[in-house]
């Protein structure tokens, strides 16, 4: 998702105390940033932030961080911050390719990847957020019991992901090719893209993995 360039977006991020740009200085210090040692769950490629803000509201005892590459998109998530009644959400503008520079070993308990960009050209496979290269990055900072939860309507990207999971030696806790007609639907929080695709009748794939 790329919205048109919004004038002043970078300044708005700089002026928002709950938003930051590639905060490498907080690596290993997120407990201090949140002011507690609660588990940290992150969403990479959060888009306009509906999913992560709902999770932050519903789970006051978990710390959430939403990561988005484009400032023009991230400011849409910033606009939702007043709706979050708990002090448990930060937003980061950065390219996830640098993600291991901002989290320390064992610092993150869960990673959500929702409707990640497919990067259909084979030469761009390494940019897919579920590639073995990204799984190796997640391995750097995910706790031993930590999970990656991936949802997509894109079956080609999903099949690629299942292959990468096997190559990287991760384990599958659960998998479904039609989340909304499965036993896993209870407790599912919809993302902006998910709402659109479900309305179109597209099946949603979901896999939960651990190391
Ligand atoms: N997760 C949201 C949803 O389900 O509604 C948005 C999905 S949208 C298709 C993918 C988002 O991931 C876009 O906002 C895009 O800018 C972001 N994104 C893609 N690659 C990224 C990267 N390397 N680092 C951070 N964000 C990225």
Describe this structure in words.
The protein is α/β, with parallel strands linked by helices. The chain has 7 helices and 8 strands; from the N terminus they run H-E-H-E-H-E-H-E-E-H-E-H-E-H-E. The chain has helices at 9-15, 30-34, 50-58, 71-78, 132-141, 155-168, 192-199, and strands at residues 19-21, 40-44, 63-68, 89-93, 108-114, 142-152, 171-176, 205-210. An 8-stranded mixed β-sheet has the order 1-4-3-2-5-6-8-7, with helices on both faces. Helix 4 links the parallel strand 3 and strand 4. It is globular, with a radius of gyration of 16 Å. It starts with 8 loop residues before the first helix and ends with a strand. The protein binds S-adenosylmethionine. Residues 1, 44-47, 67-70, 73, 95-97, 114-117, 191-194 line the site of S-adenosylmethionine.
**Content of β-strand:** 15-25%
Report the strand count: 8
Q: What about the largest sheet?
A: 8 strands, mixed
- Any idea what the radius of gyration is? 16 Å
Q: Kindly state the percentage of residues in helix.
A: 25-40%
List of distinct ligands in this structure: S-adenosylmethionine
Question: Alpha-carbon distance between the termini?
Answer: 29 Å
Provide the spatial order of strands within the biggest beta sheet: 1-4-3-2-5-6-8-7
Helix- and strand-based class? alpha/beta
Count of individual helical segments = 7
Low-pLDDT residue spans: none
Mean pLDDT: 96
H/E topology pattern: HEHEHEHEEHEHEHE
What general form does the structure show?
globular
Give the SSE layout.
Blueprint: H1 9-15, E1 19-21, H2 30-34, E2 40-44, H3 50-58, E3 63-68, H4 71-78, E4 89-93, E5 108-114, H5 132-141, E6 142-152, H6 155-168, E7 171-176, H7 192-199, E8 205-210
Helix pairs in contact: 1-4
């Amino acid at each position: 998702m790329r919205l048109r360039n919004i004038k002043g977006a970078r300044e708005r991020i700089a002026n928002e105390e709950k938003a930051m740009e590639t905060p490498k200085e907080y690596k290993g210090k997120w407990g201090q940033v949140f002011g507690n040692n609660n588990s940290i769950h992150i969403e990479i490629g959060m888009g306009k932030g509906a999913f992560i803000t709902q999770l932050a509201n519903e789970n006051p005892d978990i710390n959430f961080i939403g990561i988005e590459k484009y400032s023009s998109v991230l400011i849409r998530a910033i606009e939702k911050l007043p709706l979050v009644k708990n002090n448990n959400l930060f937003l980061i503008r950065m390219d996830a390719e640098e993600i291991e520079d901002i989290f320390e070993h064992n610092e993150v308990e869960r990673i959500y990847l929702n409707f990640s960009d497919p990067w259909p050209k084979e030469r761009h496979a390494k940019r897919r957020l579920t590639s073995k290269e990204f799984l190796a990055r997640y391995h750097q900072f995910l706790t031993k019991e930590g999970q990656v939860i991936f949802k997509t309507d894109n079956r080609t990207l999903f099949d690629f992901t299942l292959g990468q999971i096997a190559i990287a030696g991760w384990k599958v806790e659960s998998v479904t090719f039609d989340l909304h007609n499965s036993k896993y639907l209870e407790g599912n929080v919809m993302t902006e893209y998910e709402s659109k695709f479900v309305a179109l009748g597209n099946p949603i794939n979901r896999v939960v993995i651990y190391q």
